Amino acid sequence: MLSNEDLIEMYEKMVLLRQAEEKLVEQSSKGKVWTLLAGVGQEAIPVGTVKALGPEDYWEISHRGTSDAAARDGVDLKRLFAEVHGRATGYSKGKGGNMHVEAFEAKVLPMLSIVGESIPVSAGVALAQKMKNTGGATICFFGDGASNQGVFHEGLNLATIWRLPVVYLVQNNQYAVSTPASYAVSVKNISERAKGYGIPGVTIDGNDVLAVYEAVSEALKRAKEGEGPTLIEAITYRWYGHHAGAGADEQMGWIYRPEEEVEEWKKKDPVANFEKKLMAQGILTEEKKTQIWDKVNKQVEEAVEFAESSPFPDPSEAFTDVYTDLVLP
Prior knowledge:
By secondary structure, the chain is an alpha/beta fold. About 45% of the residues lie in helices and about 10% in strands. It has twelve helices and eight strands. Helix 6 links the parallel strand 3 (about 140-145) and strand 4 (about 165-170).
């Protein structure tokens, strides 16, 4: 049972993710961040998920997962921003950038830029957890486009026959780059594909943080009790195009989303709607709301300052951490 304090904490994290990514979009428009794939509008999914995760659980984030990583306790926003800015003080010493964010010490596994590859990798992590009897589970995030890759079948099949402690969560934000899910997916709901593996599949409102929390909690419980994987489809929408920044897709000739569609989805803003709910229930006050937004904005500005004041990686370190014992001729 979530307490009022839990709900306030979840709201604050959603505000943090929103403000952090909006700032990164701004930085991207200034040329200070490259290849940013923003998840603005999807904040309820990572926040609901991390509230359900235990300290023993691993999390494989998707390629649109900078804000996903920021949601987990133990992740340093300053180091995360430094990584996205390509600075040596980042989690991967500035070499990963937005496409390969990780925070191993917080059990946040790195994004894999090859679409869908996180699915079998997560099965491997869950296999290790099962063999070591850690009592933990792994949750894997991926998009609707990744659900059409061959490794989706391979990963879910292996996870099912070995009854691995893994949860697969599809962030269905309606588009794979510019291809609508309604065109590319053969079923109405991606969760229906779970039937082919004999595992539970559920479609939820990905803009409802409490619905996400409940679905992930139940799936993790099943996984840890040895009942195998669950496939969760969270319906959501990314406010920006495939690449960050208003108009970024249009600049590349990708005019594929009607403005009316975007505005209609913005009415389902997960942050604003959760805020209204908490205010209506008397859990969140105007004073507390102001305190949270002021605190978050300060955190974000400090993270930007840290990133911009950090050095770029030294060219002599280009091959460090890439190969083991690399010897150049």
